[in-house]
Write a structure and sequence with these properties.
The protein is α+β, with helices and mostly antiparallel strands and 272 residues long. The protein folds into two domains: 173 residues, Aminopeptidase, CATH 3.40.630.30; 74 residues, no CATH class. The chain has a seven-stranded mixed sheet with strand order 1-2-3-4-5-7-6, with helices on both faces. The chain has a five-stranded mixed sheet with strand order 9-8-10-12-11. Helix 6 crosses helix 7. The longest helix has 20 residues. The chain starts with 6 loop residues before the first helix and ends with a strand. The mean pLDDT is 92. This is GNAT family N-acetyltransferase. It comes from Paractinoplanes lichenicola. InterPro entries: Acyl_CoA_acyltransferase, GNAT_N_AcTrfase_prd.
Length: 272
């Protein structure tokens, strides 16, 4: 996001760069397309879909945010958010997804900038959402590209989810808050002198280290989604290790200040 562009202009530029049109949806047929898109992405149990058309209909009638991204083939992405307590001027972005065929075009970025411009126009200052702390590309996108910051670790937040993404893994999540009033992106991270609180072995196993020092690094696996398929026991060890280390640090008052492209959460301890 350029500091020189208005939120609406930045959103339009991101959509053009991604080759899509992003717009708010209200028609039943389009809401049904959102449900079908998410079913395809998450490969959910038909008895437990990510969203339903009647829920989206009610949300849009109540003034909440449902938007889709379209290219020449049709809808390739969508995002849903609802309002939080009025006094907090906050929205919660519940679910967003892009079709596999459209990956790599920054359509998710275009959706988030559209959501940001829409929210600011209504006087909303913050958008929150949850994400799996083990998915490194999402952590990098949320923190390094958008500038959001995790504020709470939520163990097994959604309970068991029978879909093609979460599998049998616990649904631990980080709650992230995105301050819409802060322009631009965060500054580059400095990892000099940081202690490694959670490391990776050459074989990809988690190794817990001493959480000494003010600045700490917490590793995540390179590709947790592949690891869940090829070595679910190792994926489970990563889940527990990140929960024990990162979750305990956040619960103890430490702040996550960034995520490095190499796969490290950067954590600052106020009590060091």
């Amino acid at each position: 996001m350029s500091d020189l562009l208005s939120p609406a202009t930045a959103a339009d530029a991101a959509a053009r760069a991604a080759g899509v049109e992003v717009r708010v949806l209200t028609e039943l047929a389009e809401l049904h397309d959102v449900c079908r898109l998410f079913d395809t992405i998450w490969q959910s149990d038909p008895a437990d879909p990510p969203v339903t058309r009647d829920l989206l209909r009610a949300m849009t009638k109540a003034g909440n945010y449902v938007a889709g991204a379209f290219d020449a083939t049709g809808m390739v992405g969508a995002c849903i958010a609802f309002f939080g307590p009025p006094g907090r001027r906050e929205m919660h972005s519940h679910i967003a997804g892009v079709s596999r065929a459209a990956h790599g075009r920054s359509i998710g970025y275009a959706l988030k900038l559209h959501q940001r411009a829409w929210a600011l126009d209504l006087g909303v200052h913050t958008i929150s959402w949850t994400y799996d702390p083990l998915v490194s590309r999402n952590a990098y996108f949320n923190m390094a590209k958008l500038g959001g910051l995790p504020v709470q670790y939520l163990p097994h937040f959604y309970g068991a989810m029978s879909d093609g993404i979460n599998g049998a893994d616990d649904t631990d999540r980080l709650l992230l808050r995105w301050d819409l009033t802060v322009p631009g992106r965060p500054q580059p991270l400095s990892l000099a002198g940081a202690a490694v609180a959670l490391d990776r072995t050459p074989g990809g196993e988690p190794v817990i280290g001493p959480a000494d020092g003010r600045t700490l690094l917490v590793a995540v696996p390179t590709d947790i989604e592949s690891l869940r398929r090829t070595d679910p026991a190792c994926a489970r060890r990563w889940r527990i290790a990140v929960r024990d280390v990162l979750g305990s640090l956040i619960d103890g008052g430490a702040r996550v200040t960034g995520f490095d492209r190499a796969g490290w959460y950067v954590v600052e301890r106020a009590d060091a």
